[in-house]
Amino acid sequence: MVEQSTRATDRPLPLPRANLLHLLEQMVLIRRFEEKTMEMLALNRIRGYCHWNIGEEASVVGAVTALTENDRLITSYRDHGFAIARGTPPETVMAELFGKEGGCAGGRGGSMHMVDIARGYFGGYGIVAGHLPLAAGLALAADYLGEDRAVLCAFGDGATNIGAFHESLNLSKLWHLPVVWLITNNQYGMGTSVHRASAEAELYKRACAYEMYSEQVDGMDVLSVYEATERLLRRAREDREPSLLETLTYRYPGHSYADAGKSYRTKEEIERWHQRDPIRLFQRYLEEHGILNQGEYDLVERRVSQKIEEAVKFAEESPFPSPDTLFKYLYAEEGTK
Ligand SMILES: Cc1ncc(C[n+]2csc(CCOP(=O)(O)OP(=O)(O)O)c2C)c(N)n1
Ligand SMILES: [Mg+2]
Description:
By secondary structure, this protein is α/β, with parallel strands linked by helices. The protein has one domain: Rossmann fold (3-Layer(aba) Sandwich), CATH 3.40.50. The protein has 11 helices and 8 strands. The strands form 2 sheets. A 6-stranded parallel sheet has the order 2-1-3-4-8-7, with helices on both faces. Strands 5-6 form a two-stranded antiparallel sheet. The protein is globular. It starts with 16 loop residues before the first helix and ends in a 20-residue tail after the last helix. The structure holds thiamine diphosphate and magnesium ion. Thiamine diphosphate binds next to strand 5. Thiamine diphosphate binds near residues 156, 157, 158, 186 and 188.
């Protein structure tokens, strides 16, 4: 099969060289991090659920990189990559997966509940579409307090068939809230394809019910995702207008550890999406523009592999939370907001 090129190949460079290389390194970091979590799960170092962003790196990194420091992010449970892309140190994400005190949620959250308030990451949520009303609330707070920030709310295609999706989009348009609704359309909600679940399978079109602006982009092309998200976040901040962005992408592994992802997808389909691996596409783009050669790519892999080793070491060495702190974080403490 002929590999499709990135849509961005014939455009001028949209970002300085260092930023482009950073996008690549973030994507490689997320890929290798997730592969390591699979290994750690098999070794029982990580217990419980694990939903990976493998295959979706361009959608995750492209969107999150478009946020300003002031902006806010909130996501579903498929959240390891979102935390890393937002700048949460990989070692605290790994420690969270291990259930350790040094984790970004103090070991209380685990895979589905990464959080990093200091970096404006308001967390991953396990209830499908449960966080969309929270995103509307974050955007309403920004508006009410006159803050110069927008909210990026990421969720899966499956979330678009939940009532909270419609309620949140409706209110956000009615009240002109500064929020970008981001559908990471990886073609499946567990084992159900979008075409079997949604009467309108072009999910971005659903925004028309709320007279909301929407777009669909190639979610395997990190620059397309970055450019669209950056533009829509700016519109949210400056014009106080919400919008809906759909990225078309694919998760290469199964839904979680209990799903091999093979019974409801053909080998041919999986192979077709592998032909457009977001990391390979962007690597080629950078090579075609003389920004990267194989030796430099190998260095990226080496740096990433070092970071992953450090992340595992930190997670292993961090203690489990002490039982005395069982009730910590359950109630607000006096003097805290
Ligand atoms: C309200 C609710 N219903 C069902 C589930 C079980 N469940 C967990 S993930 C999932 C699929 C969601 O698919 P999608 O929104 O496309 O996200 P993806 O996993 O593909 O990233 C379902 C049905 C849940 N967590 N919450
Ligand atoms: Mg999905």
